[in-house]
Write a structure and sequence with these properties.
By secondary structure, this protein is an alpha/beta fold. The protein contains nine helices and nine strands. Helix 5 links the parallel strand 5 and strand 6.
Length: 307
């Protein structure tokens, strides 16, 4: 039998010059793609951890007097989605025999408050922090200001992203709070840092971050960087002077006391601990209990400040 290029024999199959050229081309493209991916992953940001140097208290660390004080107070918490996670965490802790036994009430109608309670309600619209400030102020001025002892407003992570001016937002927040303080001198206002999002998850997540960066689009790390800038401004303004609920700080510290971060554009950017979330932003059962515990502790500690 005469053999010709590209014909199959009984036991072997030969490949002609064109087929060999195509195979080499495919292998070259595949090799280049693998090399490109390896280079991208090698230069991509990596998640790091370090000792936080900030041991977090536990519910049992708070004296009974703090819980007795809190259980006789009315608290108003204005929030959106992550706030619901935190409120669910409070319910989890109460179900475990937690030391706070305030009834949890949703709504902003003063008529529905019959005494000491943890009252919460959604305020404003996501991605519009000014709308949250306006509605929080309106609720207190028209409904709850004379009924509550403690009030706090939490922005969502979607409210503070690339393009947001952290200083301008903090100034607007402070103006709102100062106006409310002037009208309701007996209310204790607790200042809240903005929640974080988690780091890119796995190779695919890292590739997405790099693609977005190459296209000039904001990444989760760019947004977390702006949130961290806002949070640091808020801490500088209030820590050691007025009560602060550092949600971002709690979210970035794992149960071992390690703080999670990513080095991004020359900055150490804190990120939400992966085990605290299932979608990179909202808190799962573990995360919501963790943050809710710190919220209750901060509220109970106000007993000392109120003396």
């Amino acid at each position: 039998m005469v053999s010709r290029a590209g014909t199959c024999h009984r036991y072997t199959c030969s490949m002609g010059p064109m087929g060999r050229t195509m195979t080499i081309g495919v292998l070259a493209v595949a090799g280049a793609a693998i090399l490109a991916i390896a280079v991208v992953l090698a230069i991509s940001p990596r998640v790091g951890t370090k000792r936080s140097g900030r041991p977090l208290p536990r519910l049992v660390d708070i004296p009974d007097g703090g819980w007795a004080w809190l259980n006789g107070r009315t608290v108003f918490f204005g929030h959106q989605s992550v706030g619901y996670n935190i409120v669910d965490g409070i319910g989890d802790l109460a179900g475990d025999g937690g030391l706070m036994n305030l009834p949890i009430v949703q709504g902003n109608d003063a008529g529905g408050i019959g005494g000491a309670a943890f009252v919460h309600a959604p305020v404003g619209r996501n991605r519009e922090p000014e709308s949250k400030l306006a509605e929080f102020r309106e609720i207190l001025e028209k409904e709850l200001g004379d009924k509550v002892d403690v009030a706090l407003l939490k922005f969502c992570y979607v409210d503070v992203q690339r393009g947001c001016d952290p200083q301008r937002l903090l100034d607007s927040y402070c103006q709102t709070i100062e106006a409310l303080k002037a009208r309701f001198a007996n209310v204790i206002f607790v200042h809240v840092t903005v929640p974080l999002c988690g780091p890119p998850a796995g190779a695919i997540g890292i590739l997405k971050v790099n693609i977005k960066r190459a296209l000039g689009r904001a990444t989760v790390l760019d947004d977390n960087l702006v949130r961290s800038q806002y949070n640091e401004l808020l801490r500088q303004r209030f820590v050691g002077k007025e009560p602060v609920l550092d949600v971002a700080g709690y979210e970035s510290i794992d149960p071992r006391g390690m703080q999670w971060f990513v080095v991004w554009k020359g900055h150490e950017v804190p990120v939400l601990v992966p085990s605290y979330t299932d979608d990179g932003g909202h808190l799962n059962v573990v995360g919501r209990r963790h943050v809710a515990e710190q919220l209750l502790i901060e509220l109970a500690k106000l007993a000392e400040a109120s003396r």
